Amino acid sequence: MRVLVVGSGGREHALVWSIAASPLATEIYCAPGNAGIAEDAICVPIQATDVEGLVAFAQKERIDLVVIGPEASLAAGLADALEKEGLLAFGPSAKATEIESSKGYMKDLCARIGVPTAAYKRFNDREKAAAYIREEGAPIVVKADGLAAGKGVVVAQTVEEALKALDACFDGSFGDAGAEVVIEECLEGEEVSFFALVDGDHALPFSSAQDHKRAFDGDKGPNTGGMGAYSPAPVMTEEMTETVMSTIVRPIVEAMKEEGRPFKGTLFAGLMMTVDGPKVIEFNARFGDPETQAILPRLRSDFLPALVVAAEGGLKHFDLRWKTESCLTVVMAAKGYPGAYQKGTVIRNVESANAIRGVTVFHAGTVQTDNDLLSAGGRVLAVTGEGSDFLEARERAYAGVEAIDWEDGFWRSDIGDRALK
Ligand code: AMP
Ligand code: GLY
Question: What does the pLDDT look like over 252-270, one tens digit per residue?
Fold first, then answer.
């Protein structure tokens, strides 16, 4: 099979790496890719949101399957455009992607079919929002509506903090994304990322992970795209997986099919495990980053047929096998991330980390020049360790991190603490 993976992050490196292990893959392309991906695939300089360019490339290269990584490509209608030309795509239509890109659609859908999620109200008037906060009291969550890259959320412990977050939204800290504010009930519990493969009709539980969203140790500092993850999430027992599938995933898949916007691809449920059971914080229409870097090394089955069957239909009769090993990934980010940071700083010894038993380094924001590997983004590497338990996985991941020489990088030193407790 000739496969095209779209995207350039650590998630896409893990996708390419996993597909490359399939005996069915004859040629793998990635658009636009990064320095690490270039070792496993042919990188082509087409941007992930250049729908026309990607469709033309897939036609010209007779691509059998396009695997779409980022949400922006999905929201731009890449899956729709590919299917219109008779090309096979793994990833939902733009309409189905609204489960991620439109909080309003997601919340209304959950309310209509009774999927458990946090109670919420939307405001575009500062005074009314402030009154609501005072009425509800703290803790309370203030979110800039729209896509603010996970940075527009404040979980306020006091009313004053919530009002300050409200001011930041209305004073334009998040650009247009803050013109409308969502005020949400604060859910308490452990957070889990749960993934299911969906073919429009049927959902197959894929795997689970736990992310570390804050920039610094002890869950301090600003929210980021994710600073590390481990898989599987210990709270996701077989019984809990069935609860999530029957109360959350299957009702959503069924409702979306009935609405005429069937969901195909990866349904990623961001869950809070509350005392009243799992509740949805958000849905994403794609694989997680860095969750995918901690999940795919655990997959024993060939990944490629799973993607094909999800794209074509037929998951009902499909199953996957997983290793018993645990995985843990540590993100190395540019100093300053998620704020301003420098690009073009030199990274050395990635090959030494890769040479350690059980360690795989996935690249995110990297470029290779004639002589050097350079940083080219905020999150730059994801160093994954695989082990017989979380302790061993973590030792290996951090041994990998220590082997890498990058003066301008930083990382959290407490990834997986919760799993080890
Ligand atoms: P989001 O961008 O909606 O995923 O939110 C970012 C993070 O804020 C989540 O991963 C949670 O840690 C936290 N968060 C969001 N909504 C809630 C909520 N209703 N209750 C508690 N924490 C939340
Ligand atoms: N790590 C969270 C996400 O991919 O959205």
Answer: 999 999 999 999 999 999 9
At 227, list the tokens.
């600073």
pLDDT at 70 over 90: yes
pLDDT in tens, 227-252: 999 999 999 999 999 999 999 999 99
Distance from the alpha carbon of residue 286 to the mean position of ligand 2, in angstroms? 9
Q: Cα separation of 65 and 51, whole Å?
A: 15
Q: Which tokens in the block code for residue 264?
A: 């195909």
Please give the model's pTM, rounded to 2 decimal places: 0.95
270 and 191 in contact (C-beta within 8 Å)?
Answer: yes
CB distance 326 to 385 below 8 Å: no
Pocket test for ligand 2, best of 208, 289, 379 (most atoms within 8 A of CB): 289
Domain ranges, residue 137: 125-179
CATH of the domain at 237: 3.30.470.20
Total tally of structural domains belonging to the chain: 4
What element of type H or E holds 283?
A: strand 277-284
Atom 13, ligand 1: residue with shortest CA distance: 155
Non-local (6+) Cβ contacts of 84 within 8 A are: none
The percent of the chain in helix, strand and coil, each rounded to the nearest 5, is: 35, 30, 35
Starting from the CA of residue 210, give the closest ligand: 2
- Atom index in ligand 1 nearest the CA of residue 118 equals 19
Q: Is the pLDDT of residue 16 over 90?
A: yes
Q: Domain boundary residue among 287, 317, 347?
A: 317
Summarize the confidence of residues 171-178 as an average pLDDT. 63
pLDDT of residue 205: 98
Provide the pairing of β-strand 2-7 with 27-32. parallel
Alpha-carbon dihedral angle through residues 152, 92, 379, 348, given to the nearest 10 degrees: 180
